């Protein structure tokens, strides 16, 4: 295989960085999926069974006491048990997530350094070794990003605390309403816990899973983006800024569509996540040889293609699926899955068909039902 640092004149360093950033976004999406699955498994295996068990006990005690004429003080006291269950779950998730986000942030910095090292033309890196000598943000900086940096306006732990309080409030409200309306115990439990087979399930448990998924994905996007921003800031002698890269399909929000391809200087402008469940990413843009202060006679020993590759220009817009269309069948199968990739290559589905209006990837069964409409 050819050395990836041997850049052809037809493909600039910044074009190569953009392509690598998009490919990296695919890997980060897989990581996000794995983290979501892990946290949801905790909810399904621990928190939601605790809620179900406490709810069943509470309702059984009420039934045994005879007809209920009003919401008593004793009942209100029992309902507050759900506050401790949801608050404990949120603390557990937030604490565990902090440790994992630390590791993800450090890995992202390592990836950025490696990506630049591999992409800068080898003859240029050899002649100007300072171009591939990078400064890395400290562990303390990553910790600050995770613990203190606001995510869409509020600290991460504060979000978990408020969300847990909201879950408890929803559970209590649902139980009160069910009792006042004279609903059966099984109906009240179903309103709280939901039914997995119901496609329009609006239970509290489903809300818990959906909000948790959105926050986990958003946390990872935020930490990854801010870690690379700190890295770019430490190495702004090489990095001029970033371009916004959106995953353009049916689940892409208007704000991410509008930001796609825009250039922002280091430390300036907007960065992902633009909203909860945001899938956008950024790609670094290097300075030109002239901006680096080496666009002089000193570069005469470099091949013309190497000099041209370090133009420093912002790449033209390349959407996620435009990038994917230029990849091998093996890569397309890896990204989309063999069956989805085959449908896409055959023209039976478009990019917008793969996701719902929240950007969630449809299952194969859901995709097939959509195609039959």
Annotation keywords:
59% helix, 2 domains, three-stranded antiparallel β-sheet, 14 helices, 373 residues, elongated, disordered N terminus, mainly alpha, single chain, 4% strand, 3 strands
Summarize the structure.
This protein is mostly helical. It has helices spanning 13-64, 73-79, 81-119, 122-127, 139-147, 156-180, 185-193, 204-234, 254-259, 304-309, 320-325, 329-336, 338-345, 364-371; strands at 239-245, 263-265, 281-286. A 3-stranded antiparallel beta sheet has the order 2-1-3.
Written overview of the protein:
The structure is a single chain. The radius of gyration is 25 Å and the shape is elongated. A 3-stranded antiparallel sheet has the order 2-1-3. It is built from 14 helices and 3 strands. α1 (13-64) packs antiparallel against α7 (185-193). The protein is mostly helical and 373 residues long. The chain folds into 2 domains: 13-326, no CATH class; 329-373, no CATH class.
Helices and strands in order:
Elements: H1 13-64, H2 73-79, H3 81-119, H4 122-127, H5 139-147, H6 156-180, H7 185-193, H8 204-234, E1 239-245, H9 254-259, E2 263-265, E3 281-286, H10 304-309, H11 320-325, H12 329-336, H13 338-345, H14 364-371
Antiparallel strand pairs: 1-2, 1-3
Helix pairs in contact: 1-3, 1-7, 1-8, 3-5, 3-6, 3-8, 5-8, 6-7, 6-8, 12-13
What's the structural domain tally?
Answer: 2
Structural class of the secondary structure composition?
mainly alpha
Helix content: 55-70%
Individual helix count: 14
Q: SSE order, as H and E?
A: HHHHHHHHEHEEHHHHH
Uncertain runs are: 1-9
Shape descriptor reads elongated
User: Beta-strand percentage?
Assistant: under 5%
Cα distance spanning the termini: 46 Å
Task: Report the C-alpha radius of gyration, rounded.
Answer: 25 Å
Number of strands: 3
* Mean pLDDT over the residues: 87
- Sheet with the most strands, sense and barrel status: 3 strands, antiparallel
**Strands side by side in the biggest sheet:** 2-1-3
